[in-house]
Design goal:
Helices cover 39% and strands 13% of the residues. By secondary structure, it is of the alpha/beta class. The protein has a single domain, classed as 3-Layer(aba) Sandwich (Rossmann fold), CATH 3.40.50. Strands 2-1-3-4-5 form a five-stranded parallel β-sheet, sandwiched between helices.
Length: 167
């Protein structure tokens, strides 16, 4: 039996929490405990210092940062911080586009039938000391529109191991 890895999921909470829950429920991993909306609001009330402390503490006990990329993920200040923290701490880091996972809140709303527009690669905006973009070192996986959930479920364990071993 493969070792379950402790991972940190980085994502845009408001937009993507229902898609992210699908991935957390796959069961292939032992991820960070979901922070309820109430807990997250409490952390946010503590300001930037409290948020940063929570992120730092949580990532320190994880072996990999998995960035779940929705429409606006690349624009999020804390996602950027989580990526940098994970990378600088030597954690495995990679991304998965989640635009083709169905969000039940939007099934009857708009042309995407519960899907969202694909967001930009959040690793493109981070420059390494070498001058290269982090996206040249970090892989982003694009599940097929047909059966995106199954594709992620079948592969996420291997993606995590690949990211960890590449560090």
């Amino acid at each position: 039996m493969a070792t379950k890895r402790q991972v940190f999921y980085s994502f845009h909470y408001d937009n993507d929490v229902f898609r992210v829950q699908q991935i957390r429920n796959i069961g292939a991993l032992e991820g960070n405990e979901p922070v309820s909306a109430n807990q997250w609001e409490e952390v946010k009330r503590g300001g930037d210092a409290a948020i940063q402390k929570w992120i730092d503490t949580t990532i320190s006990s994880r072996s990999c940062v998995v960035v779940l990329i929705g429409t606006d993920t690349s624009k999020r200040k804390w996602v950027d911080y989580e990526i940098r923290k994970g990378w600088n701490d030597g954690k495995g880091v990679f991304g998965i586009y989640i635009d083709d996972l169905i969000d039940p809140r939007y099934v009857n709303n708009g042309p995407y039938y519960g899907r969202c527009m694909r967001g930009l690669n959040p690793f493109d905006s981070i420059t390494l000391n070498s001058g290269n973009r982090l996206s040249s070192q970090v892989k982003c996986y694009v599940p097929p529109q047909q059966d995106a959930y199954k594709y992620i479920a079948d592969n996420i364990g291997n993606w995590i191991e690949t990211a960890i071993n590449s560090r």
